[in-house]
Write a structure and sequence with these properties.
Strand order of the largest sheet: 3-4-5-2-6
Strand content: 5-15%
Radius of gyration: 29 Å
GO molecular function, one term: oxidoreductase activity, acting on NAD(P)H
InterPro entries: FAD/NAD-bd_sf (IPR036188), RNLS (IPR040174)
CATH topology of the domain at 17-127: Polyamine Oxidase, Chain A, domain 2
Low-confidence stretches: 196-222, 289-300, 380-424
Shape: globular
């Protein structure tokens, strides 16, 4: 059923591969505690083992009691897995090779195969997608009659988001192939007087007229199509400010309108946006509202902005570059936020989501450092409190050196976990 082009696209998908060896080691708890310290995994990256995980400690972190018989899991390197890709998980020689390697790492006496209560081997011949399908859409229509579609993370990216993106695209494509449900066809035929063929979508139907938009250019039902929109959940309290197009909010939030002022506040919010885990701020954010006059009515009064054609400030490019003191203040705000985010990442267990968060934080810190390195002769341009702070920094070292040190301190605990491996 596949066309030659589709077959070529699917065959071009590339995966990495790894093997995982689980060892249950009664009597070796002290050796495991000594090797791992407070960590739950250690990056090894030699010619055999990529990552060694303290699996029983991970289990205990989920609320279960930690066994006196610890369990460790060794994830092999990709090169090692490729060298032995034609062998099976029951190969005792490979088990002994990895066991001897883990024994040296843990520094336990005696052969690990003799100290092991039991072991388990998982061979991931197809692990994480490294090269997805080269396609314009994150799914593939194999047949229209009968409908048959392919979907999965190999059409997008190897993550839960990739699976979700592909699944939604496949559902939308299937919905178009199937047409309106029969119950809807009957309702349209009975209530609207349409011919059954037209209700079923078999005859051309006039396209629906686009709903009129309110004066602010956005529809309260959705349209989270750009940055700089103030939006509120349809159920429950809260407010959100979009920093980019967020169509995923259309079903759960309603747009209140574009934010037309407060660019300085917006820049600080953007600097504090979390790059990992849940989308909640790591640093508390407070909004100060003007005090209402005593005679003012308690009800909230909403009116369209008088200039209905005004462009949201988030899309309005700034003509002049920011002054150095503003850049330094923004850098300080972002570093404070990243400090807390790094601390959260250090406490989280090893996962694909954590690795993606690490990559995003490191990328943001690198860009921040590049911006700071571009600032020169700051003592000649700063004034007031900013100049005093700059001179205080100059007493010990340059701002660039201090920032380098701070970034190094923040990134060092993460360098041991900068490559993703699935846990068993």
């Amino acid at each position: 059923m596949l066309t030659a082009e589709q077959n070529t696209q699917l065959l071009a998908v590339e995966h990495d591969q790894r093997w995982s060896f689980a060892f249950f080691l009664p009597g070796c708890k002290s050796a495991c505690e000594s090797y791992f310290g407070d960590a739950v995994e250690k990056l090894v990256d030699d010619d055999v083992v990529h990552l060694l995980c303290y699996q029983s400690r991970k289990t205990a972190m989920l609320g279960k009691a930690q066994s006196e018989s610890p369990a460790v899991v060794a994830h092999t390197t990709q090169d090692w897995a490729k060298r032995h890709e034609k062998r099976g998980g029951r190969d005792e020689r490979l088990l002994r090779e990895v066991a001897a390697h883990v024994q040296k790492l843990l520094r336990v006496e005696g052969a690990l195969t003799q100290l092991t209560d039991t072991s388990k081997v998982i061979t991931w011949k197809q692990c994480q997608v490294t090269e997805p399908v080269a396609s314009e859409t994150p799914c593939m229509v194999v047949s229209r009659e009968p409908p048959l579609l392919l979907a999965g993370d190999y059409f997008a990216e190897s993550s839960f988001s990739g699976c979700l993106q592909s699944g939604v695209a496949a559902a939308e494509a299937l919905s178009k192939l199937l047409g309106p449900p029969k119950a809807q066809q009957r309702w349209r035929a009975d209530k609207l007087g349409e011919a059954p063929e037209m209700a079923a979508g078999l005859l051309p139907v006039e396209p629906a007229k686009a709903p009129e938009l309110p004066v602010n250019g956005f529809q309260s039902a959705g349209l989270h199509g750009c940055a700089g929109l103030l939006t509120a959940p349809r159920q429950g309290p809260g407010l959100a400010l979009t920093l980019s197009a967020q169509p995923g909010l259309d079903s759960s939030h309603r747009v209140l309108g574009p934010v037309l002022s407060g660019r300085r506040c917006f820049r600080r919010l953007e600097a504090l946006v979390p790059l990992s885990h849940e989308a909640h701020p790591r640093v508390p954010i407070f909004f100060q509202l003007p005090k209402l006059e005593e005679e003012a009515k308690p009800q909230l009064r909403l009116e369209p902005y008088k200039d209905s054609a005004a462009q949201p400030f988030a899309e309005d490019p700034e003509e002049a570059a920011l002054p150095p003191e503003e850049l330094l203040d923004l850098a300080d705000v972002e570093l404070n936020g990243r400090d807390v985010e790094v601390a959260d990442l250090k406490q989280s267990t090893f996962s694909r989501e954590r690795q993606q968060g690490v990559d995003k934080v490191e990328e943001a810190l690198t860009k921040l450092l590049q911006r700071l390195e571009g600032l020169e002769n700051l003592d000649e341009t700063l004034s007031g409190a900013s100049q005093l702070r700059w001179r205080a920094h100059q007493d010990e070292a340059t701002w660039g050196r201090q920032t380098n040190l701070r970034l190094a301190l923040m990134k060092r605990p993460l360098d041991s976990s900068t490559e993703h491996t699935d846990d068993s």
